[in-house]
Write a structure and sequence with these properties.
138 residues; alpha+beta; 2 domains; five-stranded antiparallel sheet; 3 helices; 5 strands; elongated
Length: 138
Amino acid sequence: MERTKIPIHKDIMIHKEVLPQLPSCFKHTKLGYPRKGVLAQYRGPNAIHVHEYPRYWLFHRDHGDPRTFRGVLAHLLFDAPEIPLSVLAGSVSGIAVAKIVGEIRKNRSKNAGEEAIIAGSIASLSIGAITFLLGRKK
């Protein structure tokens, strides 16, 4: 199948009766979100991503192949933007909370720095996780 004929993010199902196994250019990968019932995931040329089910293959094309440096940037920006967005939101919120807590606690506690780091870390992880979960498409 030509790259231009495989739409981005539109699944194409091919039964295993028609295609019993993938061509050797497709390599097993852990890169990709799990889907219910999937046996394995594969990545191939031209940013093609395949999910293997017991009776069929589900193909789609991503904007970028996360196995390459150039591809990972495209993949993070266009295929999985919730990842960099959640890192950014978590980082900004964590820094802001740490600064606020540090400023409030500096004259009241000997451990103001540690308290600020702990509060910032909790905020960062919480906001990052919430942003990630809300940003997921499926």
